[in-house]
Amino acid sequence: MLMHTHEARLDALRKELKRQELDGFVVPISDEHVSEYVGAYAQRLAWLTGFGGSAGSAVVLADKAAMFVDGRYTVQVREQVDGNLFNYCSIPKETIGGWLAANAGEGARIGYDPWLHTRKWVDAVEKQLGKSGVTLVPAASNPIDAVWQDRPEPSDAVAVVHTQDHAGRSSAEKRAEIADALKAAGNDAAVVSALDSIAWLLNIRGSDVDHTPVALSYVIARDDGTADLFIAPEKVTPELAQHLGNAVTIRERDAFSEALSELSGKRVSVDPDYGVAAIAQLLEEAGAQVSFNRCPTILPKAIKNPVEQQGHRDAQARDGAAVTRFLRWLSREGPSGMVDELTAAAKLRAFREEHGDLRDLSFDTISAAGPHAALPHYRVDEDSNIPIPPSSIYLVDSGGQYPDGTTDITRTVWIGPGEPTKEMTDRNTRVLKGHIAIAQAVFPSGTAGSQLDSFARQFLWSAGVDFAHGTGHGVGSFLSVHEGPQRISKAAGGQAGTDQELMAGMILSNEPGYYKQGHFGIRIENLILTEKREIEGAEGDYFGFETLTFVPLDRRLIDRDLLTPTEIAWVDSYHAEVRKLLAPRLSGEDLAWLEQECAPL
């Protein structure tokens, strides 16, 4: 009998924990690759609790349970997760270890799945547990899988070749670079377990995870440039095998654990952020020496080569035309009050599909009307869907996956009739000023994203307001829309990537915002490419950004009087570029609307 209520599922899990002699269990949103987006088979937290956010964990004890989410999901968790079954805990103020220390009781054995957590996570929770007498125990098998009767199978879609005319470099060349990095660090091999790193290294793509074109697999890369790929046999086509060549040995995915035990006596690199605890555990049991280093694929993957850079520009031109057609459609249909958030998101996808070669969205579209726009990570579904109210702000954050590039763009627009309030235009213009400050930034070699973050916030700060997310994240090349190691955000709390220097070839988002809870939200996002700047008389290397995204900004939300002459010139120059790039791709009413929106301020 299938369990339809979350209460029944929680009860079944508690019985299974008792059978496994565990007093509790930690349930994250994760898979064996620590992916941001996970396949349906790994959606254990959603199955148990009903929570649909992209980050969070539950802790289940025999008599109580708790949900841990950060500030992005404070509202959502209360809408989706039954407060009679789970207490709500807010990260980082409350920690899993702290809650367990206070609630589990001395001698309690708390299980965790070592294939879903990193060693770093285990160490951090054990530290939080302190002298409470509560111990963490790696579970031999995941107890949720024992009670989730209709759990989907992992995807069996085939892996495909990512051709060199999109990749820009051969897999052999990339493997040689990784081999050199391993030798330089004194390592014999590296376990590459992050799916986007595997895709980049071997020039393969897949469709096993929503929004990220990756294939479920593992790689062991060696210091002689060879590699073992562990992948389900049904995913391997003759074309793929031929592409991988003799230097890559294809083995069954199920043989991965056994292969780790073959590395006895070797020094093996495991990424502390992407290598799950089970990998390190198996290596150590086999007598390998584990060195926790950043995966050698991470930095070269982030630095896009000239072919990837041009591919991204080409993808942006198609994407920009699609988003522009959508905004023109919305300007006509929105004021009727007959368009809802889901309809708008579907229409935007349809425009993208018309403009060619869309393989997927790069994330679930944030189609946010009225007060929903004040939730930075809002995700519309059948339950939350509302009509876009006339005379209001609408925010749409969306992106596409194309073979030549991954896009991510946010536009905030006024839906008529009437005019936006003075507060709305003030806040939007301050966000725009911050966006321009990042776009125009020039900085010396060695500068980290955290050193630029306040450029985007200064005009909001001077009005006594701020936004509670980062200013920019890295973006992949027909890969993850959120890619490390670079980012632009406050350095507080030792956030990953904030100390990474920005290097030529890195793509980032530029997305300051402002959110008035319960009323409206604003975000302006373009993607930018880090590039070297030639400055006469410069002492050392200097860098700046090339803007990659070209779609009109809503002029009704811009207060010209708040902009400096330099900022006005930037907006006019940006709109001239938008017109030049998109006009050949548009016609009729779409083209007329583009001309009107791109007129000088």
What does this structure look like?
The structure is a single chain. The chain has 601 residues and is of the alpha+beta class. The protein is built from 19 helices and 28 strands. The protein has a six-stranded mixed sheet, with helices on both faces. Strands 12-11-10-8-13-14 form a six-stranded mixed sheet, with helices on both faces. α3 (74-80) links the parallel β3 (65-69) and β4 (87-90). The longest helix is centred in the middle third of the chain and has 28 residues, at 306-333. The mean pLDDT is 96.
Keywords:
single chain, 601 residues, alpha+beta, six-stranded mixed sheet, 19 helices, 28 strands
Give the overall silhouette.
Answer: globular
Helix- and strand-based class? alpha+beta
Tally of contiguous helical segments: 19
Q: Measure the end-to-end span.
A: 64 Å
Work out the radius of gyration: 25 Å
Within the largest sheet, what's the order of strands?
A: 4-3-2-1-5-6
Number of E-type strands? 28
Q: Which range does the strand content fall in? A: 15-25%
Q: Helical percent range?
A: 25-40%
Biggest sheet statistics: 6 strands, mixed
Question: pLDDT below 50 for ≥5 consecutive residues: which ranges?
Answer: none
Q: Give the rounded overall mean pLDDT.
A: 96
Write the layout of secondary structure elements.
Elements: H1 6-19, E1 24-28, H2 44-49, E2 57-61, E3 65-69, H3 74-80, E4 87-90, H4 96-103, E5 109-112, H5 119-129, E6 135-138, H6 143-147, E7 160-161, H7 164-167, H8 171-185, E8 189-192, H9 195-202, E9 204-205, E10 217-222, E11 227-231, H10 238-244, E12 248-251, H11 256-261, E13 267-270, H12 277-286, E14 289-292, H13 298-302, H14 306-333, H15 341-354, E15 360-361, E16 366-369, E17 392-398, E18 400-402, E19 405-406, E20 409-415, H16 422-439, E21 443-444, H17 453-461, E22 472-474, E23 483-488, E24 507-510, E25 513-516, E26 520-523, E27 526-533, E28 542-547, H18 565-582, H19 588-597
Parallel strand pairs: 1-5, 3-4, 5-6, 8-13, 11-12, 13-14
Antiparallel strand pairs: 1-2, 2-3, 7-9, 8-10, 10-11, 15-18, 16-17, 17-20, 18-19, 21-28, 22-23, 24-27, 25-26, 27-28
Helix pairs in contact: 4-5, 14-15, 14-19, 16-17
